[in-house]
Design goal:
The chain is mainly alpha-helical. The protein has one domain. Helix content is 73%, strand content 0%. The chain is built from nine helices and no strands. Helix 4 packs antiparallel against helix 5 and helix 6 runs antiparallel to helix 7. It is globular and about 60 Å long. The relative contact order is 0.08.
Length: 188
């Protein structure tokens, strides 16, 4: 049996009548929560974004601010939730979630002290992703100021974290100002 491929599926979809396509979408919607969220975001953006953003925020909060006990300081599940959210959310909302992740991680460091290198690397990778996304958007002054405040709050931490955040911030500013950056493509 040949492997499923998009061209084969597309060909089969082209042969379906509209009611059959609708029934297929209903089956996909009922199959799992990821499909529900994707269809909701694409077709009913307000409820879809809420459906997706709340669990993502809860995952971030759980990683950095659990309801009981101390944080695990292992933000991998929260990072995965943000990455999945960013795949289906509009760019501005994806940026907001990435920034929320970084802010909560920095806030956790401020509350509990230096963590470990892996923790900081995760925050830096998310910061880099957020800055890349920010370069593709027309940002309001408020959002630009939020980026600056996040950078400012990342100073004076260990494991090279502050240095990494500063390097990415300076490269972002170069790219935003039309200068060549070692990290980011200059927006057109």
């Amino acid at each position: 049996m040949p492997k499923p491929s998009w061209p084969r599926i597309r060909k089969a979809l082209d042969q379906l009548d509209p009611p059959e396509v609708l029934e297929l979408f209903k089956e996909l919607y009922d199959l799992n929560s990821t499909n529900k969220a994707l269809l909701a975001v694409r077709l009913d953006s307000e409820s879809g974004l809420e459906l997706l953003s709340e669990p993502c925020r809860r995952e971030i909060d759980k990683a950095f601010w659990p309801a009981r006990g101390y944080p695990s300081f292992k933000p991998g599940a929260a990072r995965s939730a943000v990455v999945q959210f960013a795949k289906v959310a509009p760019p501005l909302q994806a940026l907001e979630m990435e920034l929320y992740f970084v802010q909560q991680g920095i806030r956790g460091t401020g509350q509990y002290g230096d963590i470990d290198e892996g923790y900081y690397n995760s925050l830096e990778r998310m910061w880099e992703s957020a800055l890349k996304r920010a370069l593709t958007l027309e940002l309001s002054e408020v959002l630009e100021r939020r980026l600056e405040l996040i950078f400012d709050s990342s100073k004076d931490y260990g494991w090279g974290f502050s240095d990494g955040m500063e390097y990415l911030w300076l490269e972002y500013k170069k790219a935003r100002d039309g200068q060549e950056s070692e990290v980011f493509a200059t927006p057109s």
